Fold each of these.
Amino acid sequence: MRHETFRKTTLSLTVVAAAAVLAACENPANMEAEQLGWRGVGMEQVTNRKLEEALRAANQMPEITPPVTPGGPRAGDLYENVQVLGDLTITEFNRLMTAVTAWVSPDEGCNYCHVPGDFASEDIYTKVVSRRMFEMTKTINQDWHAHVGDTGVTCYTCHQGKPVPEHIWFEERGGPPQAGGLAASRAGQNLAGPQVGLSSLPNDPFTPFLLGEEEIRVIPTTVLPEGTNPRNIMDTEWTYALMMHMSDGLGVNCTFCHNSRSFFSWDGSPPQRVTAWHGIRMTRELNQVYLDPLQPEYPDSQLGPHGDAPKANCATCHQGVHKPLYGANMLQHYPELMAVTRSGQDEDMRAEARDNGAGATIGSAAEEALEAARHAIDAMDEAAEMAEEDYADEEDGDDI
Ligand code: HEC
Ligand code: HEC
Ligand code: HEC
Ligand code: HEC
């Protein structure tokens, strides 16, 4: 009898649990799957219509400031302290100041970046930071066409009406502090990390890959271990952590950029993977040349737990969408952003970063990567052929 009650209770608990689990499942009518590539390799983009609606609403181009008539005196001739916007006419200059206020500090106004009553003053860190932001935006739009195309970016792409963009990152050395003992060293992983799609992969793939230039590719390019592939399982976990961020940051599946038949092959990959390749190099340059070196300018309140400056990753611009603002070309309405002159110091910093192997000039490395991948595929085909021949010989009873 008691047995019976127990069974009944277990049964009803199971029913309740099952109902709870099912209720947590997404209504299939809300899901949409679109085939993006070859059949049979899972190249699909699955979209949740409800989430998509919210994302669309959040990622709209804001109202465009009315354009100004060209001509008139230049800002550089009239104002006291303009180092990068001197080529703009006064009307263009004022239009831009109005626009950046709406994009970056709509609630705080001009005084977010200016000492009240003294526009020329440098005694406020936000002004010094913004000047670098003007130069950085110019660099993105002028030198990174391979990634941002004609769409380009404005301050709004990252800021969306907030002084501090929604998605920034700081160094995390080994994860948050925790209890001692055996659990103390997690090597920066085994904790669900929001930065890496709530996986328990290494929590900070940004320091090595988007600030540093660690090698991302981990799949061996020779069939047999030859001692030429020093990459191990741990390296692979770091690569996967970055990939989780890239998928999450763009709101796409892995197959948006990869053919699941072979993750390493460039031949079979959708062209978006090459765009992403340039995106990785661009983001490195933004962090190395612009964002990280701003560290001494910030008050402590803006710095990370290890004292480093706030930095950018894919999500800073993309905000969960495959193209920022769904590919809306906002830049074309603000030619003022292309009229920024970069300082001599900016030139030097970019040149130094390039010498260290980062940034725009290593475009040919993509070609090299493609070439290496092609060789590897040939080698695999050859190995498969050889294996087939050996097998055939064996079938014939030959000694091998
Ligand atoms: C997000 C930061 C930011 C906001 C907001 C901002 N400015 Fe500026 N402003 C700057 C920067 C940076 C410079 C220096 C540009 C340069 O060095 O070429 C500047 C320079 C100026 C100057 C030139 C001062 C001089 O004599 O050298 C004026 C005038 C000015 N801003 C007016 C405004 C007004 C008016 C507003 C509000 C409608 C405004 N700014 C909002 C960042 C900002
Ligand atoms: C690629 C993305 C990106 C773009 C484009 C961009 N910013 Fe930023 N901006 C950042 C990041 C990241 C920070 C660091 C956040 C922080 O300060 O905590 C930042 C910080 C700032 C700050 C300091 C905010 C604070 O209170 O600490 C200002 C002001 C600013 N940006 C203005 C601008 C202006 C003006 C433009 C356009 C000319 C611009 N930004 C374009 C990413 C961007
Ligand atoms: C937005 C495009 C994009 C998305 C999404 C993406 N990847 Fe990648 N993946 C790349 C690029 C680009 C590289 C090469 C990076 C480089 O060489 O700098 C790469 C490299 C890799 C590698 C190493 C390949 C090799 O040759 O060793 C693996 C493994 C990988 N990705 C797995 C994944 C997984 C798993 C996902 C989903 C969680 C994913 N990727 C999502 C673009 C993407
Ligand atoms: C400075 C802002 C910015 C950053 C940072 C950025 N992107 Fe982009 N990305 C863009 C813009 C703008 C486009 C749209 C280009 C176009 O319309 O042709 C784009 C397009 C793409 C596309 C092509 C999407 C499509 O539908 O064809 C991929 C893939 C991509 N980005 C991946 C990345 C990855 C991966 C990262 C981080 C490593 C990254 N991006 C960082 C601005 C950015």
Note: The radius of gyration is 26 Å.
Amino acid sequence: MPETFTRQTLIVKTSFSEVWHAKDASGIPVVVKIALNDGATARRLRNEIEALIEAEGPSTMPVLEFDAVDYSWYMMPVAAYNLAHAPGVKDVTLGIHVVEAIEEALHNLHGAGRPHRDLKPQNILWLEVDGEGRWVVADFGIIRNAPGTTTASLTVEDAFLGSLGWAAPEQHSNPHAATPVADVYAAGAIVTWVLTGKMFEDSNPLLPTDSAIRGVLQRALQRVPSRRYQTIAQFLEALRIASVAKPTTLEDLLRKKTFDRLGASILGDLSRADDAILALPDLNRDDSAAWLREAKSGLIESLTALCNGLSRNTSSLNFVDIDRFLIWCIDVLRVLTARAEHAEVEELATAVFEAIASLRQFKPGAEAVRWIGSLDRKSEIPIEHAVHASGGLAFFQEQARNKYASRVDSDLLKKLRRS
Ligand SMILES: Nc1ncnc2c1ncn2[C@@H]1O[C@H](COP(=O)(O)OP(=O)(O)O)[C@@H](O)[C@H]1O
Ligand SMILES: [Mg+2]
């Protein structure tokens, strides 16, 4: 079939085809992809044309005209740019739009067991028609035939098929058997690139830090195909959910006992300190011990910050709730002391004592004195430092004198009582 276009400038040439800027018969700019020679490469272009036509839709590169006799060329509208050169913000919204286009373009072909096998930013193009733009999937050059109908001569047995860095691992070992799940991997790689702007290092994706989206991408990028999302639609759904997931609340973290994030959550939003003061005393001693094991500094720093807030009178809670919290803090101090974490005991005890003394809270004061009375010699030194550093010495001396002496009273308590 005679060419109905005039070549203008070459965009890219590979061993298989050339892509040209051209003008169609009426002089309208188009892009044509031309098979380089007859035989195998022409059959390959025929596959590509037929797949593009089968996948026809708003998210597929349109075929305007093609050589219906020899399948040696096809014509498309001119795209503004490809995803690799997309201007503007690269965020999860862009990633979702691209995956939506992939889902729409490949849904039916995937249903027939046919992966595209070459999804990458350079093959996702931005088409603008009448001022309206959209992403389309292009370059169906190495799409897999329906399983069972493969013409082996088109592809060399066992040779890698795809684009390095984007293709799924199984396209290295057995590209002919690759399933649509291979495209889930590539889609995951594309979104990862959109979010980080970075290519892979040794096939290890550089994942974004946002934990919800990171988890989704991790799953899409599993090396073992069966561990990935099994369809683009599932990947897209998970991506959408992760993109709107609210930061986990303090209540969620407490309920799930996610201790490694609890401190950061409290410190990250001290305007909600009262909520933390109300909720934390629900944790029992085992919980405190677990928090201490999993995230010691998060525990010490967040409780210290909450007590400092109480000392500065920033809480609007009633005294019953504040008492409950301060008494719980003393319980945490008991757990800390039992583990001989002396530096941390001193830091936290200072903040707790300061809150108790500045608010002149009787019940926590009595509890503190009871605890001081039970200390062994090793633990007395940091607590004595804390009593002084808290500025509450007089208050604790007064509390100590009110406490009836028991047989096991510590030296520190006796000292406070005497002074
Ligand atoms: N319709 C088009 N409009 C503008 N640029 C195009 C168009 N089609 C292809 N290109 C450019 O040419 C490159 C190669 O085309 P493609 O169909 O992907 O062929 P190949 O099989 O050589 O990768 C694309 O990455 C894109 O940058
Ligand atoms: Mg290409």
Note: The chain has a mean pLDDT of 90.
